[in-house]
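Structure in, sequence out. Go:
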């Protein structure tokens, strides 16, 4: 198998560009930028910023596209956030905050390093196939940014939402609903209480999901993962990786390797601001067994 056809390459590159995108969720400057346009409170900024490329949508399409959140949690934010900030204001805030965060994290890196990384990552993002990928398409259609850090962040965001759309599609094929996916993964290696609360599910909804997982053969009666569940989830992760290979095939082996080299110091700095326990479940680049998050990326 050629290197550019190895699904593991897509996962490896995700671990390099995802931290660049993730500053928008975890860096204080990103939070401050949302607050400056009236989006006070973490979840207002999160839902407004991530949904803004779709326009002033209501809750239903965001429940579908984001996948892992309880509908009631999304409905608490949407559409009411658009009375606080328009989608255009939210987009400006998320880019401003992300650029300020990256500037703080990467000030020691040469300007040429950042510009080259932005050029290559932007080229990869420009090659995404957006059919069937709503969040990836909406981000790919945004106006091009002018400066290297802005271009770098927007390209990372387009790539991660493109991959996330593919991940949701793969999870749908498992026959599990969002809370079942989360509940199963939390019986493998994640914190039940953290992810239940972070995604807005009640104890009753979570317990019912585990009952359904037993009925579907994903958990034993003792709530341990079954071989069937483990294999089905592995197949969904492999499908996610295969569907995310397009940008790296387009970029080519040599330039993909160069981009990975350029992103390594950026990713390390950005990863430092991600809390040890987060819904992303992001691990450092390396030959580990999985490293996938518990639900949609």
């Amino acid at each position: 198998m050629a290197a550019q056809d190895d699904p593991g390459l897509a996962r490896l590159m995700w671990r390099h560009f995802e931290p660049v995108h993730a500053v928008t969720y975890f860096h204080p400057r990103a939070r401050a930028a949302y607050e400056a346009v009236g989006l006070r409170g973490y979840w207002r900024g999160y839902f407004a910023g991530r949904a803004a490329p779709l326009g002033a949508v209501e809750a239903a399409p965001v429940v579908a596209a984001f996948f892992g959140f309880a509908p009631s949690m999304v409905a608490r934010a949407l559409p009411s956030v658009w009375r606080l900030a328009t989608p255009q204001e939210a987009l400006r805030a998320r880019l401003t905050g992300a650029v300020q965060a990256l500037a703080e994290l990467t000030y020691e890196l040469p300007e040429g390093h950042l510009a080259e990384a932005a050029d290559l990552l932007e080229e990869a993002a420009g090659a995404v196939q957006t059919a069937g990928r709503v969040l990836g398409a909406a981000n790919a259609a945004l106006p091009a940014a002018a400066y290297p850090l802005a271009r770098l962040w927007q390209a990372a965001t387009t790539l991660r939402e493109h991959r996330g759309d593919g991940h949701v599609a793969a999870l749908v094929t498992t026959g599990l609903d969002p809370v079942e996916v989360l509940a199963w993964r939390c019986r493998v290696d994640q914190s039940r209480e953290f992810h239940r609360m972070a995604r807005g599910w009640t104890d009753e909804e979570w317990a019912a999901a585990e009952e359904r997982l037993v009925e579907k053969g994903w958990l034993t009666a003792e709530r341990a993962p079954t071989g069937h569940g483990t294999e089905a989830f592995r197949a969904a992760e492999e499908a996610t990786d295969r569907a995310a290979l397009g940008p790296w095939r387009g970029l080519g082996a040599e330039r993909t390797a160069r981009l990975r080299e350029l992103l390594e110091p950026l990713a390390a700095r950005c990863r430092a601001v991600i809390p040890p326990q987060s819904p992303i479940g992001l691990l450092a680049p390396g030959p580990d067994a999985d490293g996938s998050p518990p639900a949609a990326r």
